[in-house]
UniProtKB/TrEMBL annotation:
It comes from Radiobacillus deserti. CDD domains: HAD_BsYqeG-like. Pfam families: Hydrolase_like. GO terms for cellular component: cytoplasm. This is YqeG family HAD IIIA-type phosphatase. PANTHER family: 4-NITROPHENYLPHOSPHATASE-RELATED, PHOSPHATIDYLGLYCEROPHOSPHATASE GEP4, MITOCHONDRIAL. GO terms for molecular function: phosphatidylglycerophosphatase activity. It comes from the Bacteria.
């Protein structure tokens, strides 16, 4: 094989791998995700991240707006499960008042938590959307497991230590995608 073909194959492989970080949709917040739009796509369930997706990472409880968003999904028979890499205490404190199932210490982007959440909702992955604020955990995990993914803008621009590292990597990936014309939104 010629060096040109080898180089082109490597570029194609890198492009294919980086596409795993490309969400199906990008929105400013979960409030832009309406039950009518999900139902039009035959979506019956949501797997959502918690920190910086539903509330700021350092906010313990659901806001009144998030409570209303959960209620609107429930009224439209759309099930929700929260999966988070955070500890049980954090996720339970947020989820239990909403009467929402959750998976803690999910180890995203690994697929087990996504599959577990889908099974607990009694749905197939084609019926479920994954929502989150991080490419390296939520989008990569959702895409790798075969879900429709929606990336939201992080609620706040501060993060925990590990997430700060992820954000630096994300910026590079987003910059590459922007240069390739794969995305048009701004950070």
């Amino acid at each position: 094989m010629s060096k040109e073909l080898e180089a082109r194959d490597k570029v194609n492989e890198v492009n294919r791998l980086l596409r795993r970080f490309l969400p199906n949709e990008h929105v400013k917040s979960v409030f832009d995700i309406k039950p009518e739009d999900l139902k039009a796509k035959a979506i019956k369930g949501i797997i959502t991240d918690l920190d910086n997706t539903l509330v700021a990472w350092d906010v313990a409880d659901a806001t009144p707006e998030i409570i209303d968003w959960f209620k609107s999904m429930e009224e439209n028979n759309i099930k929700i499960t929260i999966i988070s890499n955070n500890k049980e205490e954090r996720v339970k404190l947020f989820s239990e008042p909403l009467n929402t199932p959750f998976v803690f210490s999910a180890r995203k982007p690994l697929g087990r938590a996504f599959k577990r959440a889908t099974q607990s909702m009694g749905l197939n992955r084609e019926d479920v959307v994954v929502i989150g604020d991080q490419l390296l955990t939520d989008v990569l995990g959702g895409n790798s497991a075969g879900f429709y993914t929606i990336l939201v803008v992080p609620i706040v621009q501060t993060d925990g230590k590990i997430t700060k590292i992820n954000r630096q990597i994300e910026r590079r990936i987003l910059s590459w995608m922007r240069r390739k014309g794969m995305i048009s939104w701004e950070e």
